[in-house]
Structures are given as C-alpha cells and as structure tokens.
Design brief:
Mean pLDDT: 96
Strand order of the largest sheet: 3-2-1-4-5-6
Structural class: alpha/beta
Strand content: 15-25%
Radius of gyration: 16 Å
Low-confidence stretches: none
Helix content: 40-55%
Order of helices and strands: EHEHEHEHEHE
Number of helices: 5
Largest sheet: 6 strands, parallel
Number of strands: 6
Length: 182
Amino acid sequence: MGDFDGQVALVTGAAQGLGRSIATLLARRGATVYLADLNGPGVEAVAADLRAQHLSANASCTDMADEPAVLALSDRIDTETGRLDVLINNAGGWRYETIREVTAANWDWTFRVNLLSVFIASRACMDMMIARRYGRIVNIASTDAYRPKPTLPAYAAAKAAIVSLTRTFAEELAPHEVLVNA
C-alpha cells in the first residue's frame, strides 16, 4: 500500500475485525476515512479511537444493503470532501448452516449482507471516481468462493458471486481509470 495523504476512503463493515484494521491502516497512511457499519456504537468507537490518535475518521451507522441509506452516505462524502478515492467493500456476515438447514430467509440475508451491499456501494460511489478519472474499489471475497463449504453454502455462493461481480465492475470502470479488485 502506498501513501494515502489527501485521499478519501470508505470502509464498510468497519466496526471490528478486518474492516477496523483496514480503516486504521488507511487513516495511519494519511487518508480521511469514512467508516460504515450496522453497529452504530461500534463504528463510533472505532472513529473516536482514530480521532484520539489525531487521524481523520468519520463514522456512519449504515445498512450497506439499503440503497437509500448508502446513497445518502455517498452524498455526504461528496458534499464534505468532493471526492472518494478508495472504497473497501468489507461488510459481510454468515450463519453456520448445512444446505438442509439453510432457509430461504437466511439465504436472502446472506446475499444481501455480502453481495447486494457490494453492488449498491460500488454503484453509489463510482460516479465520484469516474468524474476524477481515479478510484480503487476493493471487494473482500474469500477462498470459500472457490471450494466447497458444507456449513456455509450461502456464504460461499455469495462470495463466488462477488468475484464475478468484481470482474464485471472492473471491465466497465477500467476505461475511466477506476480499478476494481477482489
């Protein structure tokens, strides 16, 4: 990773784990970081911790599978900064279930949290990147996309779909100097 001075980044699923670590690294490397998560108190605590280190961090309690909420967050970032350089689509979740156990409702939940959130956030943010002819979108996939996962069938399928969706976004946005990877 290079120097992020002056850049603006949005990290989803940033209240804990990998999202928190990515947001922290970007902030320490100079980025103004917007952190989004369904866990409002958690994401506020992460942003407060970063600000206590004199880093630039803004929290948002946002359901990344809720298109109007994501559009509002994208508009906020555009209004406050006029740009978005980096989008890390990290929001996700899973429930351990076999194929026999998974319900249609849990299948839908898993795809909303893991896949629909990637689609909505990428589409909501890409115009800011296209306008500047610069952007980086990183979609967090999983090795589970490539191997059988008997206790996580919906999660593995959603992550495989993220890989495919990433390729589509990458091809469409490359002419605009926006790179998309998983």
